[in-house]
Amino acid sequence: MRSRRRVSRILALFLCLAALGVAAFADGEVTPTKVIIDADPGVDDSMAILFAFQSPALEVVGITTVFGNVTIDNATANALTLVGLVGASVPVARGAEHPLVKDLRPPPTFVHGADGLGNAGRQRPVGAVIGQTAAQFIVDMARRHPGEITLVPVGPLTNIALALAIEPRLPELVKGVVLMGGAARVEGNVSPVAEANIFGDPHAADIVFKTPWPVTMVGLDVTTRVRLQDDLLERIAKANPKLGEFIYEITRFYKSFYESRGVSGGFYTHDPSAVAYVIDPGLFETEAGRVRVAPEGLAEGQTITAFGTPPEFWSAWYDAPPVEVCRGVEAEAMLELFESTLSR
Length: 344
Ligand code: BDR
Ligand code: CA
Known about the structure:
By secondary structure, the chain is of the alpha/beta class. It is built from 14 helices and eleven strands. Helix 2 runs antiparallel to helix 12, helix 5 packs across helix 6 and helix 6 crosses helix 9. The site of calcium ion (CA) has 10 residues, from helix 2.
């Protein structure tokens, strides 16, 4: 008799928990994905970081900085500016100031402005960086939250390669890597074959692509198909002046760069596409491919991707496990997601 009562109590508890679960599901409540954004902000990096901060699907547990669009000093000052702007208490860790092997090249001030925020006078760092390097911070967070963190690198991959050197078990400790970089079936943007982030540190990129962990490459194949126009930015600025006006102001310089290069129908979003992938992978179409990176020479920084080549001809690609290479994107839906998230 007593055991029957216990069974019915357990059953009632189970039904109650199930009902709560259904209610949470119905309300769209899901546990947000923990992300560390590794960035070289950068105008599009800044949009990506704000997009991530605003998304209820994501929990930004840290920002790590890297050289690239700007010097490491400016990248770090800009990350602190963004954290200050949203009023988040999120750690910022300063990362690599130069590539692993090749010499550092001057930053592309003609794309992002000398300060990396489109020379809009909006660089106002708040607070200070933490004591750890970016690579050490990535390792520590992955150890603290095993299997939970998605790394979202949107600059050169130096910090990620350094983190792998510190902790070879990193692939088992993170949930995955969703990176903006590379060009699989399209032209590059810093050479006919190379994309800027991969070109920035090709040796680091090759390490990342050779590591057996779940990597998604959100490259130029898709990021150039998502183009931002001013009317969308104006709507965000109206709905959410604090972030929207900031984005509108910093994108003026970046916009003129793309216009001067003949890009029509808006300017490339690039880095926000990687964040969009983490929020809603269903917006993208991917294809498995093995990526190796040319370290130097004419093809320096090229992400040479083996999709279907017969195995006997691709010995150099045996070392590289298949990664998910984005080849399609629902551009309109992604822009809607960007707008609705930043308008919150
Ligand atoms: C990538 O290079 C940088 O200019 C952008 O921030 C983006 O991460 C695009 O090739
Ligand atoms: Ca970037």
